[in-house]
Please model this.
Amino acid sequence: MHTPFALIALIAYSVAALRILAYRRDGARHRHHVSWFAWLLLVALGGSAIELVINAKAVGLFEAARAALFAVLVFGSRGNVARLLRPHLE
Model:
């Protein structure tokens, strides 16, 4: 890792991907389109983390902030991707 921003991005991507993997439905409805979106989000987050490990490139402030924002959003929804997709009009 060249910069602390790369380490921040790596941790944020990894933690967000693991939180999606650890999600438990607990009686929630299964929706195929949400499952596919969760899988795509998991692949994107995990792939970004793997890419940072394999190809340690210079990561800027904005990529680290984007990774941290993804992690905050995923943890805010407790890993429930359907809650990320639902509009909040309250």
